[in-house]
Design a protein that fits this description.
The chain has one domain: ATPase, nucleotide binding domain (Nucleotidyltransferase, domain 5), CATH 3.30.420.40. It is elongated and about 60 Å long. It has 113 residues and is mainly alpha-helical.
């Protein structure tokens, strides 16, 4: 739910709604977590074949700098999808779950005086 809060703030600031979420890193290997993210956000979550994109990105930059790859577009062609997680719940259930989250956050804010 925190991801939803952050993404909603980003969408409000940019004026651009989220239509898909691309993920990477070790946590993205967890299918259940990725499905939960898709359900919470209501958008497809796209996981690449190689989830270690930080290291790959550094190697790509070095390759660009040395002339191994001629353009950034050539690198984009190397990105491959492993799996797309689609939302499995509807807007009504998603909004009910989020309302529960908001109530929990409100209550947690008053635990100490």
């Amino acid at each position: 739910m925190q991801s939803r809060d952050v993404i909603a703030a980003m969408a409000a600031d940019s004026g651009t709604p989220l239509t898909t979420l691309r993920v990477d890193g070790g946590a993205s290997r967890n299918d259940l977590l990725m499905q939960i993210q898709s359900d919470v956000l209501g958008v497809p979550v796209i996981r690449p074949r190689n989830v270690e994109t930080t290291a790959v990105g550094a190697a790509y930059l070095a390759g660009l700098g040395s002339g191994l790859w001629p353009t950034r577009a050539a690198l984009g062609e190397r990105w491959e999808i492993d799996r797309v997680f689609e939302p499995t719940i509807g807007d009504s259930e998603r909004n009910e779950r989020y309302a529960t989250w908001e109530r929990a956050i409100e209550r947690a804010g008053h635990w100490a005086s």
